[in-house]
Specification:
The protein is of the alpha/beta class. The protein has a single domain, classed as TIM Barrel (Alpha-Beta Barrel), CATH 3.20.20. About 35% of the residues lie in helices and about 10% in strands. It has 14 helices and twelve strands. The strands form two sheets. Strands 3, 4, 5, 6, 7, 8, 9, 10, 11 and 12 form a ten-stranded parallel β-sheet that branches. Helix 2 links the parallel strand 3 and strand 4. Helix 2 packs parallel to helix 3, helix 3 crosses helix 4 and helix 4 packs parallel to helix 7. The chain is globular.
């Protein structure tokens, strides 16, 4: 059942349950939040609970890619909050692949700054919570969204009409030789990632950045387009490059992976070729299984949509730059159903889910029900971590999240990110991030 977009209006858990039932969407909710506080093995690592803080860029690094003062502040707040896993934000693999002039970029010159930050994060969490989080770094090539000098300098896999009012110039389409060079960059990034002390590295493949865009390159000619084998070639070659540099036995590779783009075939991955925007997770499930088999990835972080073009798909909201043609709980239900399909298809692969922030004070109830039901192994929070990094302690101590502290899905953090200025919660952290 489709309803017009509506703002959040659920004073009780029963209210949101009833709305979900009326809409016919998959949205399990539980009063018992204790499943979130069970440990989870991630390879040889151990996450002490089932909450992950997702990679939310702060646009607050220095021009040479070093974490800035606000970067450090943010991650120490995250560590103090006590998630079992912190999925560190996007860190560029090459200077031309940065999404802004202040995106983080790990180099030989600044690796010690990252090491100090990780040491401080672990020390903070040990002191506050009695354990250290698993910390994964997201290695990125921003592709279409590259802005290394503060203005668009896109590196695209192909021209994509849903994303472009007019086609971009042919010279913006990266060549096969360019792609091979970008793959090789993951060798050095993996070396530096280990030297900095990260537990693992994400070969970023989501939200229409370069690796993700290539998954839908049905219309691209040559070795990186058309067939499934060609469209997944770049991602797998990036894994192979990174794997060749792994020297620490407990260091692992993974991905934050788009399993559904929300654009019609032939411009979207994970969509039914004969049925518009209907999800078809056949290829995503196949890809995750192949990544596990060849690269022994111990976890997968699943997301959908494009925060630049159709953010309602992965971040349902009250306020944004357009009004979606669906109720926010429909988007929430699509994500939860997709997570469940993937987790049940790959029961030996722990799946980290996304889009848990929208239900506000009931987000913990959704996350706990998803974990308890075997629909995902871990719940990932992005916007909520900006707004309310201490929610894990409140859930553990009281079984509830404070409605006066939660993310209100206003989109203010995204506005700042798109503007290339330091991003954070404009509603709950106003002294630092006032609009």
């Amino acid at each position: 059942m489709t309803m017009l977009h509506a703002a959040f209006h659920y004073p009780t858990l029963e209210d949101i349950k009833k709305e979900a039932e009326m809409l016919g969407v998959f949205l399990p909710l539980s009063q018992d939040v204790s499943p979130l506080f069970e440990a989870l093995a991630i390879g040889s690592r151990r996450a002490e609970n089932r909450v992950a803080f997702q990679p939310m860029e702060g646009t607050d690094g220095t021009e040479d890619g070093t974490p800035g003062e606000l970067t450090v502040r943010r991650y120490l707040r995250f560590a103090q909050g006590g998630p079992g896993l912190i999925w560190f934000e996007a860190v560029a693999t090459l200077p031309e692949a940065r999404a802004s002039a202040h995106q983080l970029w790990l180099t030989e010159k600044n690796v010690d700054a990252y090491k100090r930050l990780l040491d401080d994060m672990r020390e903070t969490s040990l002191r506050e919570n009695g354990y250290a989080p698993v910390i994964v770094m997201q290695a990125t090539n921003s592709g279409r969204y590259s802005k290394p000098h503060g203005f668009p300098e896109p590196l695209i896999a192909y021209n994509c009409p849903p994303l472009e009012d007019t086609p971009l110039p042919a010279e913006r389409i990266v060549s096969d030789d360019d792609l091979r060079r970008y793959e090789e960059a993951y060798v050095n990034t993996a070396k530096l990632c280990q030297a900095a002390g990260f537990d693992g590295m994400d070969v970023k493949c989501c939200h229409r950045y370069l690796a993700c865009e290539l998954l839908s390159a049905y219309t691209r000619p040559g070795a990186y387009g058309g067939s499934y084998e060609n469209r997944t070639r770049f991602l797998k070659n990036c894994y192979r490059a990174a794997q060749s540099a792994v020297t620490k036995p407990d260091f692992f590779l993974s991905s934050r992976l788009n399993v559904y783009d929300g654009f019609p075939y032939p411009y979207g991955f994970g969509v039914n070729a004969q049925n518009g925007l209907k999800p078809d997770l056949t290829e995503p499930i196949r890809l995750i299984g192949e990544l596990k088999e060849e690269f022994n990835i111990p976890v997968i972080n699943v997301t959908m949509g494009n925060p630049y073009k159709n953010p309602h798909v992965n971040r349902p909201y009250d306020h944004g730059n357009y009004v979606p043609e669906e109720h926010p709980l429909e988007g929430e239900g699509r994500m939860m159903a997709g997570l469940s399909v993937i987790q049940h298809a790959l029961p030996q692969m722990p799946v980290i889910g996304s889009a848990f922030s929208y239900p506000r004070q009931w987000a913990g109830n959704l996350a706990a029900a998803m974990v308890a039901g075997g629909h995902c192994a871990m719940a990932g929070f992005g916007r909520m971590a900006f707004a309310y990094p201490g929610f894990i302690k409140d859930l553990k101590e009281t079984g509830k999240m404070d409605a006066k502290k939660v993310c209100v899905t206003c989109g203010g953090c995204a506005v700042k990110l798109r503007a290339g200025i330091p991003a954070g919660c404009v509603a709950r952290d106003r002294e630092v991030y006032r609009l």
